[in-house]
Amino acid sequence: MSAISETRTPARTAAIGWDVGAIVKFVAVTVIALVVISPLFLLVVASLKPDRFQILADMGSFRAFWVSNPSLDNYRNVATFSGALPFGRYLLNSLVILFCTVLGGIFINSMAAFVLAWGRLPGRAIILTAFIALYIVPQESIVLPLLTIVNKAGLSDTFAAQILPWMASPLYIFLIYQFFIQIPRDVYDAATVDGASPFRIYWSVFLPISGPVLATVAILLGIETWNQYLWPLMVTNTDNARPISVGIASFFGHDSVYWNSAMAASVMMMAPVLIFYLAFQRWFVSSFISSAVKG
Amino acid sequence: MLLPAVILVTIFLLAPFLSSFRIALTNERLIPRPVPPRFVGLGNFQQILTDHDFWRALWNVARFTIMVLPVQCGFALAIALLLNSKLPFRNFFRGLFFLPAITSMVVVCVIWATLFQYPTGPFNQILGFLSFGMAEPIDWLGDPNWAMPSIVLLSAWQAYGFQMIVYLAGLQGIPETLYEAAELDGANRWQRFWNVTMPGLRQTHIFVLIITTIQAFKLFTQVNILTQGGPRGTTDTVVHYMFTAGFVDQRLGLASAVAILLFFIVLVVSIVQRFVVKDRS
Amino acid sequence: MNTVLGKRLLSVLGTAAALSVTSLGLSVAQAAELKVMFQGDPYEVTIITDVAKRFEAANPGTTVQLINTPHDAYNEKVGAAVSAGSLPDIMQLDAPFLANYVWSGFLQPIGGVIDKPLLDDMTASNISQGTYPIDKQLYAIGLTDSTVALYGSRKQLEALNIRIPKSVDDAWTKDEFETVLKTLAAQPGTKWPIDLFRSYGTKTEWITYAYEPMLVSMGCDVIDRTSWKATGTLDGAACVAAATEMQNWVKQGWVVPQSAGGNQFYAEGRPAALAWGGHWFYAEAKAQMGDDVVVMPLPKFGEKGASPNGTWIWAVTKTASDPAEAGKFLSFMLQDPAYREQYKEHAGFPGLKSFAAASPLYAPGGAMAVAFEQASKSAVPRPPHPAYPTITLAFQNAMNNIFDGADAQEELSKAAKKIDADIEDNDGYAPFGKVE
């Protein structure tokens, strides 16, 4: 996997015209989108049915997609749950874990990717391959030894136990690496000539032009963190650091499922990540590389 | 600069994984027992490699991978191209198409179990409607022939957002000037796609191919929730086999050995992929 | 209530981190502190949190720390706690795993620390789910238990002149049961005569829990309960015949398939006529069908009837810092009127006679009275053996495959071999299997 170092023509400002049949395309996209997300209507519809037995009775037919007396009771119940499960606290915990993991993850992974792509380190290819290979290891197979390690470190039932293990990720190092090696050699060389240190080059040359890939990492790592289930389930004992994904699991009892609350909570759980995603996807604009080369 | 990542990965990923090498050589149990665990050498590996169920699970994930790769990645690329082009309410659509990816797998399975329901679920109703009542309802998750394709469809639906967003980011790296140049040369849209877009996404393709393959080989959650490997083992996967051995049957030693075998099998697949992809450049 | 709870949790936070690293053997309790590990849905968590608060109020100086664990990872948590030496004082456990835990050596008998009247109040089924077969001692207790009953529509059964059994003693016989299935299969509106809840799959305990009694009633078992060998029993002629019989029901199209969901008994049009459902199913069915739901005892396939039992029950760990205090808490909780009231509201299946008498649903004349009668007449615990995790896994896979058309003899032999191999691998789980 060698770095692509082809020189690119400087960007000009003209846009490419794709307007032909714009309306046809818009209609087509709308139809595809509706078909694709239609299964999710079921989730929203079920969350508006306050009677869990009714949800059960309607499952497995088109009635699951229809609610005759929509009610927000389920949302109200979850939000103000009068019982022993503080969903507000769980939500807060999840947000803390999300932000710490994503923030740390972006820097740690991009620094590693930078060194692997451009550093003067011997055996870079081997290290990269080793990283990717470690991505193969399924989480289910390491949770138990990991639990022992975390317990020994005294991190059981803490935020750190849910943040530290997943910040550095072979997957995202690989992703950012693939992006970094596309950056033309000139960019790196120009900075070296100026006498900048590697960290400086990373910080003030590479990071600023990596918007799309960093946004991608933020979004994907964010979702992954948000939906983590098995690990937080095992590592949290109290409500201290328990995230919302585990909180929702409580609705699935050993002999009865509180579908009404579970569905409402699931919809509520999706909202923050959706906002998070919409915030970051705005970084997907224009060609950062070409604008960098332009100068 | 490499150090933070190396340290974290070593402590939280490499070390636990290495410890499974030690466990794999013993008959250690999930819940410690009064009979101390003993060294069994390669006994666990021998037991797995002579177990027909393991090979079936491996064959199943291979089938799954081959089916899900083109479906999921192809759809993701198509949607990414659409969402990267000029489109009214583009951000709105980008959000819409990403919704399945942020839905937790448990919820996805509940929804799709309803869609697949036999004999009167929505898919079967649509099938009956489209065939004017001619087609018999299909037991999507209960028929050995349909179970895996059904899991493929569900998985691709839930996960395509991952590849979509990676492609979307990759598309930002292709300078618009290349398209302009191609257009000046008189290339039509199709030619621009093959000669500008596809080569420009080369690094992204490599990433998507390798990562999607690895993810596919790790198939577990949806199978565990919906079919538990059935019917008749047609959707059993290596990770499900491992999970069952470790967490249900409580044989940690055996489960660790499965994890190690899976690691080396997928490693070989990845290396072959890298080799093939590299050859073409 | 929330603010008090918040404070309680905050007070718990400080000790929470220490809990996992401190070896219990070394920790010296200053004031009495009880650590209680349990699982439950949000309503149970609320109930237990409240009763813990009342216990603290009634016993100044004692604090109760609740460790609420989703039941998905309960076994893993137990394993981790045992390895780390950080077991709580009191732990809830799923009844069939009792033998495994006791044999592994981390539970202690509770007969001496629980209030005597409470022990006398336990149903036969409740005692059996908490008893370890080797020393015949009681290791766990609960307010509740569970069972499976046969549900039908009174209107439909009466219209077809099908006899509705009123007590366990006059349950349907095998022939009667199969005639009923045949009759129901012929009804135009009925898609399937019975729902055996195959939809629960093999991820839950359902297959072993709900189907093993059929085998027992048909004269066989998953494992011989004296020699503790599966070969010769599970793969014997009686079991193969029983499993083939059940497979035949599926082949006839009498059983709701796995992918049809668990709501066919009461869904629109009532596609399934009967339901072989847990006691919790009554509330579901009643919500849609009202008083038309009729509860019947499980059929007597052979000479005697058999019915499932067992639920999540409470035990005291061997490392408990103060077993007497732990017993005091359990006695307090199980006799707490508000605790009982809340379980009654959620239709908990009684494990105590006095609780049954006070639950209109299960008391004589109640809709579920006949289901409760099973607890004293036909309840059979799942094999109380430390190999249970392997037993249930092997059996569930075998039965599921048989239902899906596999050869019964082949599948049961495979399962029996797996079970015996595990027992051998643990040196026979001595003293199990030793001739007394």
Automatic annotation (TrEMBL), chain A:
Where does the record locate the signal sequence feature? none
**Sorted alphabetically, which InterPro entries does this protein's record hold?**
MetI-like, MetI-like_sf
Q: Tell me yes or no: is Nucleotide-binding among this UniProt entry's keywords.
A: no
- Residue ranges annotated as transmembrane are 20-46, 95-118, 125-147, 159-180, 201-223, 257-280
Q: Which domain of life is it from?
A: Bacteria
Membrane topology, as annotated: Multi-pass membrane protein
Q: What taxonomic lineage is listed for the species of origin?
A: Bacteria, Pseudomonadati, Pseudomonadota, Alphaproteobacteria, Hyphomicrobiales
* Protein name as catalogued: Multiple sugar transport system permease protein
From TrEMBL, chain C:
**Which residues are the signal sequence here?**
1-31
Full protein name: Multiple sugar transport system substrate-binding protein
> Is this entry keyworded Transport?
yes
Q: Where in the cell is it found?
A: Periplasm
The text of the family note is: Belongs to the bacterial solute-binding protein 1 family.
- What Pfam families would the database entry show? SBP_bac_8
Q: Which CDD domains match?
A: PBP2_TMBP_like
Keywords attached to this entry: Cell membrane, Lipoprotein, Membrane, Palmitate, Periplasm, Signal, Sugar transport, Transport
User: What Gene3D superfamilies does its record include?
Assistant: Periplasmic binding protein-like II (3.40.190.10)
Origin species, per record, is Kaistia dalseonensis
Per the record, the domain of life is Bacteria
Report the main location listed first in the record.
Answer: periplasm
Keyword check for Cell membrane: yes
